[in-house]
Amino acid sequence: KGFELQLQGQVTDALFVTAGYSYLDGETDTGLEAPREVPENMFSLYGNYLVTEQFGVGLGVTYQDESFITDRDFAKVGAHPTLPSYTRIDASAFYDVSDDLRIQVNVENLTDTLYFPNAHSTHQATVGRPLNARFTVSGRF
C-alpha cells in the first residue's frame, strides 16, 4: 500500500524543478512479514537553472529511508539486518555549443557519503558510488 507524487514544472524562464515523493507500507502475502528492500519514504528534488541561453547548472538531493535486507518476521523480536537511510547530493552543468551539440558534466554524491542502496543477501550489501563525475558530449542529427 502507498502512493507516489511527482511534480515538475518551469518555475521561471530560467528555473525548472522536479520533485518526487513516495510512501510505501509493504507486507508479504501472509501479512506476517515486512518485505525486503522496501523503504517507507523516498524523496527527490532537482532543479536546473539556465545561467545564459547556452549555459545551465543543476543541483539535486535524493533521500531514501532505511529498509530491511531480508523479509522481517514481526513475530521475532530483536535486531534485524537493515540498510540505513541515506541522503545523496548531485550536481550538473551543461553548455550548448550549438543547436546540435551539448557538453555536460554530472557529479554524483558531492559529499562523498557512504551509502547502501540495496542488498543481494544478508552479507552482500551494494555500496553506493563515491564522489564521481561523468562527462558527456551529445549531438543531434
Would you kindly provide a written description of the structure presented here, covering whatever features stand out?
The chain is an all-beta fold. The protein is 0% helix and 59% strand. The chain contains no helices and 13 strands. It has strands spanning 2-10, 15-24, 33-34, 41-50, 55-64, 67-68, 72-73, 82-83, 86-98, 101-108, 118-121, 124-126, 132-139. Strand 4 and strand 5 (55-64) form a beta hairpin. The mean pLDDT is 91.
Name the features.
single chain, 141 residues, mainly beta, two-stranded antiparallel sheet, 13 strands
Put simply, the count of helices is 0
Order of helices and strands: EEEEEEEEEEEEE
Radius of gyration: 19 Å
Largest sheet: 7 strands, antiparallel
What best-fitting shape do the alpha-carbon axes yield? Answer: elongated
Unreliable stretches: none
Query: Structural class of the helices, strands and pairings?
Result: mainly beta
Q: What is the first-to-last residue Cα distance?
A: 45 Å
Percent helix: under 10%
Strand coverage percent: over 45%
Q: Let me know the number of strands.
A: 13
Average pLDDT score = 91
Q: Widest sheet: strand order?
A: 1-2-4-5-9-10-13
In short:
The protein is an all-beta fold.
What topology emerges from the helices and strands here?
Layout: E1 2-10, E2 15-24, E3 33-34, E4 41-50, E5 55-64, E6 67-68, E7 72-73, E8 82-83, E9 86-98, E10 101-108, E11 118-121, E12 124-126, E13 132-139
Antiparallel strand pairs: 1-2, 2-4, 3-7, 4-5, 5-9, 6-8, 9-10, 10-13, 11-12
